[in-house]
Amino acid sequence: MSKREVPGVGPYGGPAGGWGALQAVARALRQQMGVGREAKMLLKVNQPAGFDCPGCAWPDPHSTSSFEFCENGAKAVSWEATSKRTTPGFFARHPVSELWTWTDFALEDEGRLTHPMRYDAATDRYVPIEWDEAFARIGAALRALPDANMAEFHTSGRASNEAAFLFQLLARRFGTNNFPDCSNMCHEPTSVGLPESIGVGKGTVTLADFDHCDAIFSIGHNPGTNHPRMLATLREAARRGAKIVVLNPLRERGLERFTSPQDPVEMATGRSTPIATDYVQLKIGGDVAVLKGMMKTLLAMDDESRQAGGEGVLDRAFIDANTTGFDELVQDLKATPWDDIVSTSGVAREEIDKLARIYAQARAVIVCYGMGITQHRSGTANVQQLVNLLLLRGNIGRDGAGICPLRGHSNVQGDRTVGITEVPPPAFLDSLKRVFGFEPPREHGHGAIAAIEAMHEGRAKALICLGGNLPVAMSDPGVCFDAIRKLDLAVHIATKLNRSHLLAAKETLLLPCLGRTELDTQKSGTQSVTVEDSMSMVHASQGSLQPASELLRSEPAIVAGIAKATLDDPTLDWDGWVADYSRIRDLIEAVFPQFERYNERIREPGGFRLYNAASARRWDTPEGRARFIAHKGVMEDPRADRSDALLLATIRSHDQYNTTIYSFNDRYRGITGRRDVVFVNEEDLDARGLQHGDLVDLEAIETTVSVGGSRRLCGLTAVAYDIPRGSLAAYYPEANGLVSLHDFDVRSGTPSYKSVPVLLSLSTGDCLTESSASRWQDGDVRHDQTGAAIATAEPHRPNDGSTPM
Ligand SMILES: Nc1nc2c(c(=O)[nH]1)N[C@H]1C(S)=C(S)[C@@H](COP(=O)(O)OP(=O)(O)OC[C@H]3O[C@@H](n4cnc5c(=O)[nH]c(N)nc54)[C@H](O)[C@@H]3O)O[C@H]1N2
Ligand SMILES: Nc1nc2c(c(=O)[nH]1)N[C@H]1C(S)=C(S)[C@@H](COP(=O)(O)OP(=O)(O)OC[C@H]3O[C@@H](n4cnc5c(=O)[nH]c(N)nc54)[C@H](O)[C@@H]3O)O[C@H]1N2
Ligand SMILES: [Mo]
Questions:
Q1: What string of DSSP letters covers 336-374?
Q2: Is 83 exposed, middle or buried (0-12, 13-18, 19+ CB in 10 A)?
Q3: Are both 732 and 775 inside the same structural domain?
């Protein structure tokens, strides 16, 4: 390793969790909240009578009443429950063009939005507006559209089932199925791939299965940061001797070892529990190769066992009774050469053989996965290879076994369940028609990419966002920013200010809403909402804090306000539904039979599980069987024949929630006070005459240049890192400018955020001008090529995670 000192870059020696986690929570609380109320409030997270943590979609062990500590949950809660406020006075002081130069961190760090605001072009400022006036303007602009399909209704996955259901009702009654949503950028390959394979677009396991499995394969996700409560589950499994196999190009600390802040002995002694029994650092995009290699070895083991008179390692009885496509899979595996498998994955054959043996020896296996699987050109195929592996030994639909996609936003799965989808199944539309008496649009609508294209090309003229930061989270932000600026109407229902809100359309409205932590009082009294976690558990969530401002409205109330001002349909009782959310749940139950006795069942502790046919080995596919789905080759390589190109994965730091940046630290990766880094294998640096600490540029290679023209990210600091050759990592959303809008998994539409083909070179300095808008080392504000400010330096504070507070 290079010995050069690089500010803010250093090794992290501690485990995940431990005192470092407690310190981070203390800091988050100190920076965001008034002293006193935080502890009380944090105790209410994920409790039967409390609110659902907006942090992630990992389920809660409701059987225990102890508060499950989670560092990043605490950050998410304190970020929302902050005592800081973004008031009309703030907007009067700062023109929007000035705010544009602020960092994403600084914008949200102003605190909670307090008033409905409207952008005034004459003064370049947001000015206060009355709610009714805001709704009237939205209604007028929507009604002025010549075609309902010129409106886009965007959802980010924090919206409750109740808000999301009303939102889809508004859009469909208005006449469109245009529902771009965060799922399009996230687990769409799951929603598309799993139904083809097993007839259900969701995970099949429950939390209890983790107590009964013998092996867990954790592939392409980073739970220590993104689903921290999962570490408690993995720790339990590791302690009882289950094998935990990790496939990840980076050595993520949470998957290596964890000190549980709830274990007094570990905390006092500084000990930790090892998590992974086998940690395989494959190359970016190498998953299909490894999975196919494992399956080839399993076939060989099976043959060998049978020839020796044994019963084989595959579950033939299950395969015969439950599946189709086995022969095609075998043929494809036989046709896939080991050389391709090893060179694409960077994993030796012996290592792959070992993984296959671990898999074969385990009685029950769970495969968990996240964005490292889905955000590739072959995202859907990747998901289906995971299923193939599981089906070979009947590892779906029995105790301790199954597939476990780690969902993103805390209610992204629920939003989909209650109708946020651009490709609505006919049976759902029939049901809507039966319950509400109107003919819903049948034509498929826009997902996220199609919506951006439609807005960019002028085919869509209005965008209503129920949360999120769409143009910043999407690929090709330059194109996305232009797209929004071309609109007649942009409406943002939000808790905090973000960059999307600074893109002025002809009419731009910013509507502040209640968050999960806050009391929601309507005519019939205090309201609960409901959410669905990654394991299909639906439960209630009730906030307890006084709202950040008296003017805030709940998401269902805002959606209803827009609906009343837009639609002319007296049969829809928006006011009545908002007065009592249990009436919205009655409607959901009427439309979706799986919600039977909805209001009653959410009163049970922990809520209820939605029926999952695959968990019961009922295969809702055309053949009535689970399907092995072969996928030719080992990788669709976006580098084409550019042998000098590298594959870049854009990832989350430990201190961010998607586009929300909590701080500039990434503790477990040893990064402090900055985000302008790219992680590179030292040999890849050497091969380019580069060193650890050099300023470098990344340029997306031509195969992916699309609407946005050439894409460069300049002046990043290269960090020599333990990552396979040919693979790079940099932070999302700063690196999104490198991702082409046209580089996505064609089957699901999910952008290939995790395999961006780029060239790496010494920085030319060309970008350090205002015109290319990159000012990396020049004061506090830095810019990416789109002119968006992206990082502010914080003092570099070392932290090895081992010292008590
Ligand atoms: N605190 C916090 N919690 C969150 C979020 C957050 O931003 N902050 N976001 C929420 C959302 S919306 C989501 S979707 C989830 C995201 O949670 P994750 O799925 O964990 O998301 P990422 O951090 O993007 O990266 C996943 C991992 O994939 C690995 N990886 C990259 N490329 C490959 C590859 O080719 N193969 C394999 N096997 N691995 C690869 C990376 O090294 C990284 O460890 O978390 C949710 N929870
Ligand atoms: N390069 C790259 N790009 C990615 C990814 C990646 O890994 N790499 N990941 C993708 C993934 S998995 C996802 S899910 C998307 C996320 O994309 P989004 O869901 O669009 O982004 P968020 O950053 O979660 O949205 C943050 C904003 O939501 C608003 N908000 C917060 N809480 C609430 C609430 O309770 N109600 C309302 N109405 N608004 C609220 C706040 O105003 C906040 O600024 O990004 C995607 N983009
Ligand atoms: Mo996500």
A1: S-HHHHHHHH---HHHHHHHHHHHHH-SSEEEEE-HHHH
A2: middle
A3: yes
Assign 772 a pLDDT band (cuts: 50, 70, 90).
very low
Phi/psi at 509 (5° precision): -125, 140
- Whether residue 13 is contained in a domain is answered as no
- Whether residue 158 has its Cβ less than 6 Å from ligand 2: yes
CA of 417 to the centre of ligand 3 (A): 16
Residue 182 alpha carbon to ligand 2 centre in Å: 7
Residues 97 and 176 grouped into a single domain: yes
Pairing of strands 695-700, 656-657: unpaired
Mutate to test the pocket of ligand 1, among 79, 181, 651, 660 (most ligand atoms within 8 A of CB): 651
Residues 463 and 362 in one domain: no
Domain count, the chain: 3
Domain that holds residue 379: 188-405
Asked if residue 450 and residue 396 are part of one domain, the reply reads no
Residues in a beta bridge with 744? 751
Site to probe by mutation for ligand 2, drawn from 99, 103, 182, 545 as the one with most ligand atoms within 8 Å of Cβ, is: 182
* Cα of 230 from ligand 2 centre, angstroms: 21
Does the CB atom of residue 108 touch ligand 2 within 6 A? yes
- Which residue, by CA, sits nearest to atom 20 of ligand 2? 468
Q: What is the mean pLDDT of residues 92-115?
A: 95
Give domain status of residue 17, yes or no: no
Reading across the β-sheet that carries 215-219, which strands appear in turn? 278-280, 243-247, 215-219, 365-369, 402-405
- Whether residue 716 has its Cβ less than 6 Å from ligand 1: no
In this prediction, residues 348-363 reach a mean pLDDT of: 98
- If you search the block for the tokens 């920076």, which residue do you land on? 31
What is the number of the ligand closest to the CA of 406?
1
Nearest CA to ligand 1 atom 37: 220
Range from 45-54, 129-138, 155-164, 373-382 carrying the lowest mean pLDDT: 45-54
C-alpha separations of 269 from 13, 70, 762 in Å: 16, 20, 45
* Integer Cα distance of 258 and 18 in angstroms: 7
- Domain assignment present for residue 16? The answer is no
User: What is the band of 446 on the pLDDT scale with cuts at 50, 70, 90?
Assistant: very high
CATH code at 262? Answer: 3.40.228.10
Burial class (CB in 10 A: 0-12, 13-18, 19+), 240: exposed
| DSSP 8-state secondary structure symbol assigned to residue 428 | H
Assess contact for 201 and 423: CB atoms under 8 A: no
> Which is it for strands 646-651 and 727-731: parallel, antiparallel or unpaired?
parallel
Cis-peptide, bond into residue 733, ω within 30° of zero: yes
Both 438 and 452 in one domain: the answer is: yes
What DSSP letter does each residue of 193-261 carry, written as one string? Answer: HHHHHHS-SS----GGGGGT-SEEEEES--HHHHSTHHHHHHHHHHHTT-EEEEE-SS--HHHHEEE-T
Ion ligand 3, residue ranges at CB < 5 A: 186, 408
Using a 10 angstrom Cβ sphere, with 0-12 exposed, 13-18 middle and 19 or more buried, the burial of residue 120 is middle
